[in-house]
Amino acid sequence: MSFSGRLKDEICSLPSNPVSLFSELHAIIRYDAEVSKNLISFTFENPAVARRVFKDIKESFNISSHVIVRRQKKLRAKPIYIIEIREQINSILERFGIMRNGKKCDIDRDYFSDPEEMVAFIRGAFLVRGSITDPSTSGYHLEYIFNRKKDALFVQELLREMKFNLKIAMRNGKYLLYLKSSEEISDMIRMFEASNSLFYFEDVRIYRDHKNMVNRLNNCEIANQEKSTQAGMRQLAIISDLKKYDLYDLLDEKTRLVLDFRSKYPESSYNELASIILMEADYKIGKSGINHHFIKAKKLLNQYLENTKNK
Fold first, then answer.
1. Are the CB atoms for 81 and 67 separated by under 8 Å?
2. Counting C-beta atoms within 10 Å of the first and last residue's C-beta, which end of the chain has fewer, N or C?
């Protein structure tokens, strides 16, 4: 089962009070039901969501809806669950404000009187329109898919009030409301009170963050090593030219000492070279000191080349 499927199973297993139950069912009917004059029907692939909707309808309206299970003919295809409401159609739609005087109505922000209702509405919309990719197999991605732009904008507005910054895009004629921030996705799972899914998500997130940090450190170490190697090659060229033009002995003793050790250890960083010089020659020197000696050596070489050029 996918991570989304497990998350929805966990949400559906949580108890709900009459207020949250009503708001959750409202979102499910508004965004997922097929409505006609004599029928409200839902089609689900997730059995836990189907059971939740069946239970919510019974508790909210004291009616028993009809359940139809159909098995698809495709190989290993999952069964689909169809729930049909065949009574109190107008009463249900009017109670949710979906229909009024025979006309379909949109919902506005003033409909909700407290944050609990908003959270339940967002949770219900997620059960039928939402999904989250498994963080262990791909990047962080949460999305809702709506048929109408108005619906996507309304849910986006509710989530912004809760400090979630979802963006809207179009895909295959549908309106995609999506989120890629791992922290915000984690906060949303926490808002749904799905603790098991939250622990899993956080475990994977911590592992991935640690792995990325290690990779960055390794890349930084490789880059530093390459930088040290390139610097060492340039300095070896200076040493070679100084000896070629009989300038090496003109350097002071300490500078020649540093250059001799560079010749022996061409790929060492300045820190490593300083430690080697201290250990083998008992001469304490730092990075800036090594750099200073090479500046002196390069200056001597450049002066010689300049004088030779002007003759």
1. yes
2. C
Asked if residue 75 has pLDDT above 60, the reply is: no
- The pLDDT score that the predictor gives to residue 265 is 86
Neighbours of 280 (CB within 10 A): 11
> 195-244 and 3-13 helices cross at what angle (nearest 10)?
150
- Per DSSP, the residues of 2-28 read -HHHHHHHHHHHS---HHHHHHHHHHH
- Does 242 lie in the same domain as 134? no
Q: Locate tokens 């669950």: which residue?
A: 81
Whole-prediction pTM value? 0.69
Residues 8 and 110 in one domain: yes
pLDDT one-digit tens code per residue, 112-135: 878 899 999 999 999 999 999 998
Candidates 195, 42, 65; CA nearest to 127 is: 42
- HEC sequence for 255-299: HHHHHHHHHHCCCCCHHHHHHHHHHHHCCCCCHHHHHHHHHHHHH
Q: Is residue 238 a contact partner of residue 295, using CB atoms and an 8 Å limit?
A: no
* In a domain? residue 205: no
